[in-house]
Amino acid sequence: MRKVFLLIVLIVFILSNALIAQIKISGKVVTLEDRPLEYSEVILFSEKNIPLVNRLTNEQGEFNIDYQKGIYKLEIRQFKQVVYTKSIELISDIQLGTITVDATNVLGAVVISGRKELVERKVDRVVFNIENTISATGGDALEALKITPGVSVRNENINIVGKQSVRVLIDDKMLELSEADLANFLRSIPADNIKNIEVITTPPAKYDAAGGSGLINIKLKKAQADSWSLSLGSSYLHRNDEDEGAITSNFMYNKNKLSLSSSLNYRDGGETFSYQDYNSFPAELWNTKQRFNRGYKRLNGVLDMQYLATPLWTLGFQYIANFNKTSSNRNTKSLVYQHNANVPFNEIISLTTADQKPEFNSINLFNEFKLDSAGKKIILNLDYFKYTNDDTRPYEGTSV
To answer: Which of 152, 196, 268, 371 has the fewest CB atoms found within 10 Å of its own CB?
Structure first.
């Protein structure tokens, strides 16, 4: 009896290992000119189009993905533009060989000459030096995240591929905002003010409170040593239904022991979306049409000061203010049909409006003490954060 039990345990162990065994997918991505395409995203999707694994190609354009048996979709993207897609069934290791893609239009939007590499790999993170691209020029921080390798942005949801949740930081300071408010805040930051974006898949010990989530750290530009600059700008965007105007200002100063950077940005505009969907039920069919209009006013200000008291002691101050006013309305019309009928027997009309005024003020005081030349240091932070949101959502509906 004991031998039978041990045999059953052995069989179960072998079968479980076989089911979760990791299978390798490998390949090499090159351009039409046979040049390695580095820093491309290679993403494995489930049959339900859910991203499961994300890898970046190396300097030789090579990639490796380890995953379990199943049917998937493999997609290769260069700055969020899909350049290759293939359905694959993982049974045993797959060598895709050399994959030739046309990335001419994508690479044309990248400027790297004489600067840092566009994407840097570190032990626990990937650094996207967005200041080296022109594709984000005129955009905002949320649009910058859309082209950041390893980051997925759908509507107002920000994710790191392969992570259950994500937290966003500005200059190493955590933002405690809801998804919608975070998206509104990021829309108020011009992409031109961003130096780089760090995608941290293995958070360091000081972020233990973030649990198993990934981190996105947005680093704002600072003044170069022994310099100062002032820039003023404006932009106008015309859409079919709504327009947007923006005014931006930036001041940077770095001389002697004092470093200062500040920005004030204002956007005023709107956007319109239309949706239509069909839902089939056992007794009836619903045809729903929606039109969503949103107008917004966004004011964002940042003040950052650092003073080098001694070669080993730096003290600083950062203030971030964000004020939003959003007015929206959603018109929904649902026609309800019986199956095989051309005339609806019911019509449901609803109007939802919303007036939101989210705003927050964030203040950070910090002291940084360097302990040695190896990089060890002690950082003392004092943070103040105040958030309010006046949210009104009246609803009106009729059924005829």
So the answer is: 371
Q: SS3 for 9?
A: helix
* Cβ pair 227, 255 in contact under 8 A: yes
d(CA 328, CA 345): 30
Task: Please report, for the chain, the start and end positions of each structural domain, with discontinuous segments joined by +.
Answer: 18-102, 109-221, 222-400
The answer as to CATH 3.30.1360.180 being correct for domain 18-102 is no
Give CB contacts under 8 A, 24+ apart, made by 157-160: 158/182, 158/183, 158/216, 160/54, 160/199, 160/201, 160/214, 160/216
CA gap 186, 168 in Å, rounded = 10
Residue 17 has a CB neighbour count (10 Å cut-off) of 9
Size (the chain), residues: 400
Superfamily of domain 109-221, CATH level 4:
TonB-dependent receptor, plug domain (2.170.130.10)
What is the value of pTM for the model shown?
0.70
Helix (H) or strand (E) holding 331: strand 313-337
Phi, psi (5° rounding) for residue 350? Answer: -135, 150
Which of 119, 108, 141, 12 has its CA nearest to residue 55? 119
- Taking a C-beta distance cutoff of 8 angstroms, is the pair 25, 90 a contact? yes
Question: Tens digit of pLDDT per residue, the chain (400 long)?
Answer: 565 555 555 555 454 444 456 888 999 999 888 888 887 888 888 888 888 888 888 888 899 988 888 899 999 988 778 889 999 888 889 999 999 988 765 554 444 444 567 788 888 888 988 886 766 666 788 888 988 888 888 877 898 877 878 889 998 888 888 888 888 888 888 888 899 999 998 888 777 555 568 899 999 988 888 889 998 988 887 777 778 888 989 999 999 999 999 999 999 988 887 878 888 888 888 888 888 888 889 999 999 999 999 999 999 999 999 999 989 888 888 888 888 888 888 888 888 888 889 898 999 999 999 988 777 889 898 999 898 888 888 767 676 6
Tell me, rounded to whole angstroms, the distance of Cα 23 from its chain centroid: 29
